[in-house]
Every structure is written in structure tokens, then in C-alpha cells.
Write a structure and sequence with these properties.
heterotrimer; A mainly alpha (367); B mainly alpha (525); C alpha/beta (281); A: mainly alpha; two-stranded antiparallel sheet; C: alpha/beta; Rossmann fold; 4-stranded antiparallel sheet; 12 helices
Chain lengths: 367, 525, 281
């Protein structure tokens, strides 16, 4: 008797998790719009546009963190280049937004007019089609990840070598995108978006739709990832993480397992980037800076590796702290972030989720 | 000797100053019209005698006046007749001769030409050099005369060129041809652009001259390219030595100890700020010896960076041995703390670290190729540090202990090697060498809180390509990467060069993973 | 590392390097094992050196189908390196290694060799400590090990039965759901043997399988191995002479990377060269 796949996906989460996920979606899809649109602005319960954008942005980061957890927590591969995939997704969708921002249908994006370009470069073809761009959001990060991952994993590059080379990769990409000739707006990247699917990008309704989509995507990613890591694939993956050579002698080829999770992770990052750009309103090459990519790792580490919910918590904790610090104590943010890296690796190897579990265990033992 | 020369020179002067300049011509200097003035200046310059020089100099100094119908020179309270130079009574109400910019340029040129006849060799040399790039056709006869008189070979060579340039405008095709052929020997881009019009049919009617001009341009281009490529190889060499200095410390902490230190670049920064600190101290307390701040900064930077290294090792890295990915993240955190620390202490802006006097200037290898002293010294310094590290690792007890601990920690501990202390010392050594690299870096690039960030990827690439735990590998990789990237930069621009290098390294690792996995045998997982 | 070697081989071979489970792990490229001449494993003049040190020096060894062979030898004799060569972890500098009549082991990757039917138990038990005992066996089970199949894999009833059967055989049925890392050393050894059995290999390479076991466990292991012989070929590396005696097969003595003596246990134990190697001059 084989269970149908849908049923298996459903049974990947226990009832408590489903309940939590349901509450999360209800909050994001019902409560937030009500608080934003229906509650008057002077009320204490009003949710400001700033708060929605901030939380929407952090949900995108949480999505990236889950993607990072799949490859690092479960695959044991620390990528320091995930910012690249995030930015690729963002740029792909940004192309569409730039085309929508032009004064008429056939117009070139403003930066190209500024550079005195007469025609769109070939890779911009079709960028006025929403469907094509959504395809690019998925395919471009997947392709880049596949080609890079295939060569890296085939040469059995692991551990810190892999990390350093991914860092070099995103660094190189950043330099490339800084160039005006690359055709993606150089230093300034893409900004000044106006429309998305003919709707004003700054209208409260559009903002709420994007917010809701991000929430749904995050929830769906969590379910999908949960299924992935509880399937036999997940068990093989963690086994490869723990002892790659042993798995080879059993008859598994780690290359394809690593490559699969690597590409999945990259695609999730690309989607997160595509959701991020219309909400934040800008994408530029600094998203690919090595520092950005390594920050993703700390979200995961703070929350707790190989837990799925941990990275979401970590992304929220670190980024809320960041927005608080950069407003109140901009001088100390880097000190805080640096110490966070140190403290988490030295004292909280299992992250906040691990700490919570430990505390619960102690409580249970005491009672 | 001297006795002989002085009368000789005097004779020369005498022969030159047989006649005082024509008074009417001198009067023309004070004419209303600028063009008249220019004509007079040129004519006076042609005379090439000390009187002319004296008068033109006075004019350039704004001490030439018109009193009545006579040009006079006023120096303080005394007055001289301009033409003869004889002192005269101070005139009643002298009128200053206006010298506008056009006239001033003309005067400068004329004076330079005149000083070609100066008795002092240095003065002649300087003026010949000044005349290399701005000579008009009307200077040709003057230069020809100077050439005749000149005995010094160096100055003569310069004059030949200047004369050739001046003769390019000559009406006689034969003169022009000779000039072009003479200019083919030079390697200056200005001369090249001067020859360019002569290749055009509309500007140059004589076919022979045109051909000669094309050939001359080709010859100049060849020499220019050679100088440029040599220059690139040299700057690649100096970039390579910087990479080597950055990578040597890493070769110890990572290559030998296996500690991945993402804050390595910040140790470079610590070294560079140490140099800045020493410079400030010297400026404040020992202003007379300020040029010596750099040698003083070397030990200071070494020990400051080493101290930072000790603190890092004792507080963080020690607890993470064997957990490389965690070490990577924790040391990244350390780097953020160090960067922000530098911002708080020294400000977010770059600070100015000046080259000491003895490091400015350089060796002129080819007319178009200057090797700056600061870069030459850095190459030498890198070699010195390399030697130091090699001796430390291979010839001292510390080096032996470090190698023993890294090969078999438990066994080394058993035979009495204080492993924990060796770890700290080895890490401090690696950090100190990074500090030395920072001092070198402070001499050729900006010193700021973020300066280390740019070097971390590069220096890891050096270690990765060179092979872990091998000093020789690091040396070749650093020099190779340095030269390769500078040559590429010249050919394709800095960004493309950087990307190409990274792609090449990734391909290299595909083909030769031994570059990475230097270890072999059954213990390799 | 052997990756460059692999690349070179692959180029000569005209197939993309490491070209993955996708095809080999089916049964297409490696082909069926051919034991028609009664030889399971054939090593001919194998030499392996690491930085000048010869770990194997013109080693020749033939294992018959269904044979149980014991390998002994002092430390550094090359026992582990020999297993590395057979399983594809180390590429020999020269010599050839054939599995059955047709399969050239020097040209296959580790997963391909595993799939062809060679199972290996390591000296140090290498089980997956974070996985349960049951999952360890599930991972090892002979099945399609490609990514897509793993994604959609769902244990069928007969597969569960096979795992349960193995659990009983290795006496770990009560520990099935415990993390393998919590087992005792002897239990870990048994689990690894169980994983080996789940792979259903034709040739089993066992590196010190009874180290850390009690006498009772050792004797049971010997019985298990003897019962496996005949259907499978076994190569056992051991130091425990009582265990080897119990197994009763041919014994090969390795010394400095080549075969020093071969015969039954009594013969090699009385060979003066063997005595000298073991006891020194």
C-alpha cells in the first residue's frame, strides 16, 4: 500500500504545526489587512505601512533563511553566496518592474536612456511579460546554482573551501553588476518602480497583496521543506552530511543529492528576492556583497540549525534587532552583530530553538 | 681646472654680448598691442644674449616700465635703462608694462630658450627638458644655434629632439623628413600625437615624410607598449608581494594550523593603523625624524596585530578547534567588531599615511617607465618577511613545535609540547605577519576601517591555489595571481580581470584539486 | 585524493566523470556481475604509493566466488589500502583490479562499485549516529538510490519485513527506534554488519569486524560469516586469531604491501617468514 504523495506531504507536519501555520496565515491574510485598512490611523491598533513593509521584508529574509537551513542545516554545506541567488531573483523581477515603470509600453528603462542605449539587450527580451519574468525568477538562480554546484560538488569541494568559493562567486557577481555595461543599472540598480500588473506599487492594496503572497510562500516553503527533510531524501541528505564517504560505499552518489538540495535552496532564494523587490522598492548590487550573504548564516545559527522553524525565528529576531539598532544606536549595530556571531557559535550551537528545548527538558526533569 | 674654465666662460659671454640690443626693439616690448610685444619678445630671444635674458626676465617679473619713450627697469628705488642696462635717474612717473597671459606664456618659452645658453649645466638641462613638449616652428633657428654650442651629450640629445619638433613645421620637406626620422627615436605619447598630422595627405604633401611619419609612429608605439607591459609586470609583482604578505600570515593560521580566520584582513588593517599611529606620534613628538616613523612602525605593527591575535585566539578561536564552519562564522563576527572598533577610534573616513621622503620618487627604467621606490621597497620587504617566516617555521624550536602539534596534537602533548601555548603563539605569529602586511599596504593604498575586507577573498585564493601548508606554494600563487591579474587588468579592465581570475581559480580547482588537498593517503576523508 | 585520477580515467574512457547515479545506479553501465569462471575478485600487480611510500607493492590476490578469506598482517602491511583500492576510494598507480570477469574496479566510482555488489565494513564503525537503527538499515537497503526515487520513496511491506528480519538477526530489534549513536560499541559493529547485509552484496569486505565485541558476540559473528560463505564471497581482515580459526578459511598474510604467505591458518602460523615479521628478529 503506497500512500499518495499529497497525503504524505500533509502528514509531514503534526496537527500542532498545522494549527500554528493556520494561525500564522490567518494573522497575515486577515488581521493585518484589517489593522491596516479598517482601523483608523490614530488608533493604537493601526498597523502602519512601515510596519507592513518591514515585516514583509523580514518574511522574505525568513524564506531565505529556510532555504539556507536546507543546504546548511540538513546538507552540512555552508554557502556564503546565497545573496547572489536572492539578488538574481530580485533582478529578474525588477526587470519586469522597470519595464512597467517606463512611460509607454515600448520605452527603455530610464537608466538605459541615460546611458544612451538605443535598444534593449537580448536578455531583456520578454521582460515586459509577467509570466516570462516569473519563469526567469525560478530558472536563472536554478541554472546558476546547477552549473556552479555541479562543478564544485563533482570536484568534491567541501567544507570551508566551498564556503570561500561561494563567497568569491557572489563577490565576482557583485563586481559584474556594478558595471553599467552589464545592463542592470550599474551602481544604482533598479528603483523608482511604479506599477505591478497595472496596479500602483505604492497603493495599500498592492502592499497587502504582496504581504499576503509572501506569507503564503513562506508557509508553503515550510510545509515543502518539512516534507523534504522527513522523506527518505532528507534522511539520505543528513546521512551524507554526517559521513559522505560511508554513503558512497553504500551506493549513493552524493553529487546529485547535494546538487538537488543546492538548486532547491537557490530557487527558494530567488523567489524570496522576487517578493522582496516590489515591497522594498529597490534592488542594487550591494545585495550580493559577501557581508549580506554571511548574515543569512547568522539568522539560521541564531534560530537553530536543522529545525526549519529556527531560521524563521532567527531571521525575525536578528532583523528586528537590526532595525531597532540602526535607528537608536547605529554605532553599535556592528558590535552587536559581531558579538552575535561569536556568542551563538560559542555558546548556542543549537540556537534559540535548542536553548528552548534544553530549558523544557530541564523543566520536565525538575517537575 | 676652475681657473681654466672661468676665463673660458667669460670669453664665451663676451663673444655673445658683443652688441647691446636695439633700443627700438626694447621699446617695442612696451607697445600697446600684444602682437607687437610678442614679435619683440621673439626677436629678442633670437638674439640669445645675456642682455636679452635680463630684459625678458625683468618683464616677466613685472619690473619693466615705460618712462616717456624709453623702456626702463625699476628695481626698488634704482632704475636702469632697459636696453643698455646702465643705471639712470629714477624717472618721474613710470608706466607699468602690462603682461597678460599670452605674453607670460611667450616669455616663459623665450626665457627657457635663452637659458639654453646659461653657463650652468643644470640650468641648461632643465630648460632643455622644459622644451621637450612645447616648441613652435620659430624656435628652430635658436635651437639649432644652441645645439651648435652645446657640448654636453645629455643636453645635446634633448636638444636634437626639441629641434626636430620645431623643424616639423619647416617649409622644406627635407628638413621635415630629417626631423621625423630624429623623432622616431623617442618614446613619448606627445611626440606621437605631434607626428600624427604628418600622416595625413591634406596636412603633409610630401610622400616620403608621410611614410617616415607612419614608420616613426609605429616605432614609438612599440616602445610605448614595451614600457607599458614592463610596467604592468612590475605592478603585478608589487601586487603579488602585497598578496604574499597578506597570504603568509594566512598560510600559518590556516595552512598550518587549519584555523579559518575571516578576520585576517582586519589584522592587516590593525597593522596599517599602527603605521598611522606611529606617524602621528612622530609628527607630534619627533618632527625632525618623521621620515623614520616607518621603520619604527614595523615592530609596533607586528606586536599590536599579534596581541590582537592572542586575544582572538584565547577568547574565541581556542574553543572552536576542529569546527571550521563555526570558526569561520565566529571570526567573521570578530572582523565586524574590529571594523567597527576602528571606526569608533579613528573615524569612518580613510586616514592619511604619507610615504617617508626616502620612499618617494623612483627609478626611471625607460623614458616611459618609472618604478616607484615605495613599490620596490615593498617587494623587498615581502621577500624579507618570507625569509623570516621560513626561518621561523623551519629552523626554530617554535616552528618545530607548531609542525609537531599540527601533525599529531595528542602525541606532541605527550612528549611535553605545551600545545595550548603553541597554538596561541602560532596564531599570534600569523597575526603579526598580517600586521606587517598592513604596514606595507599603508604605503600604497588607502588606510580605512574597511580596507581589510577586500583582501580576505584574495588571500584565501592564494592559499587555496598554492596548496595548504606550503610556503612555496603560497609564494608562487601570490606572485602568479598578482602578475596575471595586472596583465589582465591592462587588457580587459579591472572588473573583468577580477571576475576572470575567480573563474580561472574555480576551473583550476576542477583540474588540480591537489592545489587544495595537499594531503594524501589513507587518513584523508 | 584521487579525483584527478578519476578525471583522467574518465577522459580516457570517454564518459563524463562521476556521471552519477543517474545511469550507473540502474543496471545499465556496470553490467551484470559475471562469476562464470568462479573468480569473484582478481587483483593483479597493484601498486599504490603515497608521496614515495609504497602502501601496496605489486599485490596479487584472487578471491573465489563463495570463498571466505582472512587477511592478516602487521600494521602498515597495506590491508586498509587494499580495501580502498577495491572500493574505489584509492586509485592504484599501476595494476588492475577486476570484480568477476568483466568489471574493472579501477574505472568505477565508489557508488558504482557499491552498486555492483561490493559492500564494506570499516575498521572504525561508521554508522549514522543521528539516524535511528531502523533508518540506518533503510539507508543501506538494496534499492534504487537515485535522487528522485529517494524523494518519492515509501517503504513497501516486504521491505519492512526485510529490515525487521535483519534487525532480529543482528539482535537489535528492541533498539530499532533508538538513535544509533546511543548503541554500545559491539552493537554498532553488529549494526554495521546488518547494513552490509541489507546491501545484499556479492562480496563483503570486513575490516576488523569483531574489535570491541565480547567473546560471545565474536563467536556469533563467526557463525554468521560462515553461514554467509558459499552464497557470498567474504574478505575478513582481523587480528583475533581465535576468530580466524573459527572462520576456518584460507589465510593470506600481507607484509609491506604484498603477499607474504598464503594457506590455512596452521600453515601460515608455522611459516618462519611470518613468525619473523610478527615477532621481529
Amino acid at each position: 500500500m503506497r500512500k499518495p504523495l499529497t497525503l504524505r506531504v500533509l502528514s509531514a507536519l503534526d496537527s500542532k504545526s498545522w494549527l500554528a501555520l493556520g494561525i500564522f496565515l490567518a494573522l497575515a491574510l486577515i488581521l493585518v489587512p484589517v489593522l491596516n485598512l479598517a482601523v483608523p490611523e490614530d488608533s493604537a491598533f493601526h498597523m502602519s505601512a512601515y510596519a507592513i513593509t518591514l515585516i514583509g521584508k523580514i518574511m522574505c529574509y525568513a524564506l531565505v533563511a529556510v532555504a539556507m537551513d536546507l543546504i546548511w542545516g540538513y546538507g552540512g554545506i555552508l554557502s556564503l553566496g546565497h545573496g547572489l541567488f536572492f539578488a538574481l531573483g530580485g533582478y529578474a523581477f525588477g526587470m519586469y518592474l522597470m519595464r512597467q515603470a517606463g512611460s509607454d509600453a515600448g520605452a527603455l528603462p530610464a537608466f538605459m536612456i541615460f546611458l544612451d542605449w538605443k535598444a534593449l539587450p537580448w536578455f531583456w527580451l520578454g521582460s515586459d511579460s509577467f509570466v516570462w519574468v516569473i519563469l526567469l525568477v525560478v530558472v536563472v538562480p536554478a541554472l546558476v546554482a546547477f552549473v556552479f554546484g555541479y562543478f564544485a560538488f563533482r570536484s568534491r569541494i567541501k567544507g570551508v573551501y566551498f564556503s570561500i568559493i561561494t563567497q568569491a562567486l557572489t563577490y565576482a557577481a557583485m563586481l559584474l553588476f556594478f558595471r553599467n555595461e552589464t545592463g542592470f543599472g550599474g551602481n544604482n540598480g533598479f528603483t523608482d518602480f511604479r506599477l505591478v500588473l497595472e496596479h500602483s506599487i505604492t497603493s495599500p492594496q498592492t502592499r497587502l497583496v504582496l504581504f499576503g503572497l509572501t506569507a503564503i510562500m513562506l508557509a508553503a516553503t515550510l510545509v515543502f521543506s518539512r516534507w523534504l527533510v522527513t522523506s527518505k531524501f532528507g534522511r539520505v541528505l543528513t546521512a551524507i552530511r554526517d559521513s559522505e564517504s560511508r554513503m558512497m560505499f553504500i551506493g549513493y552518489n552524493p553529487l546529485w543529492y547535494k546538487l538537488f538540495i543546492w538548486v532547491v535552496s537557490a530557487v527558494l532564494c530567488g523567489i524570496a528576492g522576487a517578493l522582496y523587490v516590489p515591497q522594498v522598492g529597490i534592488i542594487n548590487p550591494s545585495e550580493m556583497s559577501p557581508a549580506n550573504s554571511i548574515e543569512i548564516a547568522i539568522w539560521v545559527a541564531v534560530g537553530g540549525r536543522a529545525t526549519l522553524i529556527g531560521p524563521v525565528i532567527g531571521a525575525f529576531v536578528v532583523n528586528l534587532a537590526k532595525s531597532w539598532f540602526t535607528v537608536s544606536f547605529p554605532e553599535y549595530w556592528l558590535f552587536f552583530l559581531g558579538l552575535l556571531f561569536i556568542v551563538v557559535t560559542l555558546m548556542l550551537p543549537q540556537g534559540l530553538v535548542g536553548l528552548w528545548k534544553k530549558l523544557m527538558l530541564k523543566k520536565g526533569a525538575a517537575a | 681646472m676652475r681657473r681654466l674654465i672661468i676665463p673660458l666662460v667669460l670669453c664665451l659671454w663676451a663673444s655673445l654680448s658683443q652688441a647691446t640690443p636695439d633700443a627700438a626693439l626694447v621699446r617695442q616690448l612696451a607697445a600697446e598691442d600684444s602682437s607687437d610685444k610678442v614679435a619683440a619678445i621673439r626677436q629678442l630671444a633670437q638674439a640669445a644674449d645675456p642682455d636679452a635674458a635680463r630684459i625678458l626676465k625683468a618683464m616677466a617679473d613685472d619690473s619693466l616700465y615705460l618712462a616717456g619713450d624709453k623702456a626702463v627697469i625699476l628695481e626698488g628705488d634704482t632704475a636702469f635703462d632697459a636696453a643698455s642696462g646702465a643705471p639712470i635717474a629714477t624717472p618721474a612717473n613710470p608706466e607699468a608694462v602690462t603682461v597678460n597671459n599670452r605674453i607670460r606664456g611667450e616669455l616663459a618659452n623665450a626665457l627657457a630658450a635663452l637659458s639654453l645658453f646659461d653657463a650652468d649645466r643644470a640650468v641648461r638641462l632643465a630648460s632643455a627638458q622644459k622644451l621637450q613638449n612645447n616648441v613652435g616652428a620659430d624656435m628652430a633657428p635658436l635651437l639649432a644655434r644652441a645645439l651648435e654650442k652645446e657640448a654636453d651629450a645629455d643636453i645635446k640629445a634633448l636638444l636634437v629632439l626639441a629641434h626636430a619638433q620645431a623643424s616639423l613645421g619647416s617649409a622644406d620637406p627635407a628638413v621635415r623628413l630629417a626631423a621625423v626620422n630624429a623623432l622616431a627615436e623617442t618614446s613619448s605619447p606627445t611626440v606621437k600625437s605631434m607626428l600624427q598630422p604628418l600622416t595625413d595627405k591634406t596636412a603633409e604633401s610630401d610622400e616620403k615624410v608621410r611614410f617616415a611619419a607612419v614608420a616613426a609612429i609605429k616605432a614609438i608605439d612599440g616602445r610605448l607598449a614595451l614600457a607599458e607591459n614592463l610596467g604592468r609586470v612590475f605592478s603585478g609583482l608589487s601586487l603579488g608581494s602585497i598578496l604574499l604578505l597578506a597570504a603568509l600570515g594566512l598560510a600559518i593560521t590556516y595552512g598550518v594550523m587549519g584555523v579559518i580566520n575571516m578576520a585576517h584582513g582586519e589584522l592587516l588593517m590593525v597593522g596599517a593603523y599602527s603605521a598611522y599611529g606611529m606617524q602621528s606620534l612622530f609628527r607630534a613628538y619627533l618632527p625632525d625624524y618623521v621620515d623614520w616613523y616607518l621603520p619604527a612602525a614595523i615592530p609596533v605593527a607586528f606586536f599590536t596585530a599579534a596581541l590582537v591575535g592572542v586575544v582572538m585566539e584565547r577568547t574565541v578561536i581556542r574553543w572552536l578547534y576542529g569546527r571550521t564552519l563555526e570558526t569561520l562564522l565566529a571570526t567573521w563576527g570578530l572582523s565586524l567588531v574590529l571594523i567597527q572598533g576602528a571606526r569608533v577610534l579613528f573615524g569612518a573616513q580613510n586616514v592619511e599615511v604619507a610615504n617617508p621622503g626616502w620612499m618617494s620618487g623612483g627609478i626611471e627604467l625607460l623614458p616611459n617607465l618609472m618604478l616607484p621606490w615605495n613599490r620596490i621597497i615593498i617587494v623587498g620587504f615581502a621577500l624579507f618577511v618570507l625569509l623570516l617566516v621560513w626561518v621561523l617555521m623551519n629552523k626554530t624550536r617554535l616552528g618545530m613545535f607548531v609542525r609537531a602539534v599540527t601533525q599529531n596534537r595528542a602525541m606532541a602533548g605527550c612528549v611535553g609540547v605545551p600545545t595550548a601555548r603553541i597554538d596561541t603563539m602560532a596564531f599570534a605569529l600569523g597575526a603579526g605577519i598580517a600586521g606587517l602586511g598592513g604596514v606595507a599596504l599603508s604605503q600604497i593604498s588607502n588606510v580605512g576601517p574597511d580596507m581589510g575586507q577586500g583582501y580576505i577573498v584574495d588571500s584565501f585564493m592564494v592559499v587555496v591555489v598554492g596548496g595548504v601548508g606550503q610556503l612555496a606554494g603560497a609564494v608562487w600563487a601570490a606572485l602568479g595571481l598578482g602578475i596575471f591579474s595586472k596583465l589582465l587588468e591592462g587588457w580587459a579592465g579591472a572588473v573583468i580581470a577580477k571576475i576572470t581570475i575567480l573563474v580561472c581559480i574555480i576551473i583550476f580547482i576542477q583540474k588540480r584539486p591537489q592545489g587544495i588537498f595537499a594531503l594524501k593517503g589513507r587518513f584523508v576523508e | 585524493m584521487n579525483a584527478p585520477n578519476t578525471t583522467a580515467e574518465a577522459l580516457l574512457d570517454g564518459r563524463p566523470e562521476g556521471s552519477d547515479g543517474a545511469d550507473q545506479m540502474g543496471h545499465l553501465v556496470t553490467g551484470e556481475l559475471d562469476l562464470s569462471h568462479g573468480v569473484a575478485l582478481y587483483l593483479d600487480d597493484i601498486t599504490v604509493s603515497f608521496d614515495g611510500f609504497r602502501a601496496l607493492n605489486k599485490l596479487n590476490l584472487t578471491i573465489d566466488a563463495g570463498e571466505l578469506r582472512c587477511i592478516i598482517g602487521p600494521n602498515g602491511a597495506g590491508k586498509t589500502t587494499m580495501m580502498d583500492v577495491i572500493t574505489g576510494k584509492t586509485r592504484p598507480d599501476s595494476g588492475s583490479a577486476f570484480f568477476g570477469q568483466t568489471m574493472d574496479l579501477t574505472r568505477l566510482t565508489e557508488p558504482e562499485i557499491a552498486h555492483a555488489g561490493i559492500g564494506r565494513k570499516f575498521q572504525k564503525p561508521t554508522i549514522f549516529e543521528n539516524h535511528s537503527v531502523f533508518e540506518n538499515l533503510e539507508l543501506a537497503m538494496k534499492t534504487d538510490k537515485r535522487v528522485w526515487k529517494s524523494l518519492l520513496a515509501w517503504l513497501a511491506a516486504d521491505e519492512r519485513d526485510r529490515i525487521a528480519e535483519t534487525l532480529r538477526l543482528i539482535r537489535l530489534d528492541k533498539e530499532a527506534d533508538r538513535p544509533a549513536g546511543l548503541l554500545s560499541h559491539g552493537q554498532k559493529q553488529w549494526l554495521e554488519i546488518g547494513m552490509l547485509l541489507m546491501q545484499e552484496p556479492k562480496l563483503l569486505l570486513l575490516d576488523e569486524p569483531v574489535a570491541g565485541m565480547t567473546d560471545d558476540e565474536t563467536m556469533r559473528t563467526a557463525e554468521l560469516f560462515v553461514s554467509l560463505a558459499g552464497k557470498h564471497s567474504l574478505v575478513v581482515v582481523e587480528h583475533d586469531m581465535a576468530f580466524i580459526e573459527k572462520l576456518g578459511g584460507m589465510v593470506t598474510v600481507l607484509h609491506e604491501g604484498s603477499v607474504l604467505a598464503e594457506g590455512n591458518l596452521a600453515t601460515v602460523q608455522n611459516d618462519p617468514r611470518v613468525i619473523e615479521v610478527y615477532l621481529g628478529r
